[in-house]
Known about the structure:
By secondary structure, the protein is an alpha/beta fold.
Amino acid sequence: MDSLLIKGGSKLEGEVSVAGAKNACLPIFAATLLTDQKCVLKNVPDLSDVRFMAEIVAAMGAEVSNPSKGVWEIEAKKISHIAPYELVRKMRASICLLGPLTARLRKAEVSLPGGCVIGARPVDLHIKGLRALGCKVEIERGFICVDARKMRGSQVYLGGRFGSTVTGTANIVMAAVLAPGTTVIENAACEPEVADMCKMLSGMGAIIEGAGSPTVTITGVPKLGGTEHTVLPDRIEAGTWIAMAAAAKGKVLIKGALKKHLGSFLDILERAECPFEIKSPTSIYVDASNIKLKPVECTTLPYPGFPTDLQAQLGALMTQADGISVITERIYPERYMYVPELCRMGANIVREGPSAIISGKSKLSGAPVMASDLRASAALIIAALAAKGDTLVSRIYHLDRGYDSIDKKLAALGAKVERIKNAD
């Protein structure tokens, strides 16, 4: 497994472009199974998760090609209704196959996904939504088995213990677009990635109103066609670059950082007195050469609240603030695997239930650390940029799941970073 060796102390300077959103691509790839016509996807990031999702779609029977960088063509003329454990176990997002298989074939057998290091992510709301649409759903032999012969539009409420469900909303929207009648989803996930998937579905001929709001109305149609869709920029990558520039006291223009999708994160940065400037609706400039961070209190919430996918990055940055910061995780309470690794570098962080109490400013020093998940990997890089000395981040296959060419982009900004092959 590869590692990254980062020499701390280098100031980042220049421009960086944000790739397409990973969390939009995965349900969008699944959505291509709703039609037997060709779909062309553009601005697709080069990520291991995306490549694996492409393999899953191909294994379901679709013809899949990657004719040029960032472009994928998918034509699902004939597909299977069974998504076996061998496929689903490798990536939880493959549960998004449930909606399109149900809609197009009126039956589906999708293996229950496995566990995750950041905590349980149940599929009960997916099942609840399908049953509300008139589907018969049973759990058999570790599979979600759906009989959708009597499926039709209905009222669906998707609220759960931790708020709305992103993949659950995606699944029910995809199921409803081919269901007779009208479906109204209440407490739908408002994330931009869900709205982007709905934009693609509309391009295929779906009738969807309210995408990106808590109430989504879908009028079912008999058939969907092919489309060409450009994936929106990744707001989580954009936020990560802002945190990296701040930690490295850099001067960086982040292109593809959409202000309208980063409101809660930018609000926290303002309270922390992290200097940034909105250059355009799609670009943000950070000049952290004289940065003096203030501590903040923050709670993760469903969009438009502070994103759980930026919690670890903020935690790493707040080690450099003068005072005590408190971060509370309300989406995935176990998403603190990065904390012991930051403490090995000299951070002062204490867990109190769902909260992390961060006492700064810490003088971080380079150390060997291990990435536990995708966003923890980014947090360790942020700390490494602020640290004195060398930091070796191992198991960066997590990083490659969600950040396209991050080591090359860092190097282009002036960071001293080296990818070490098969380091552990």
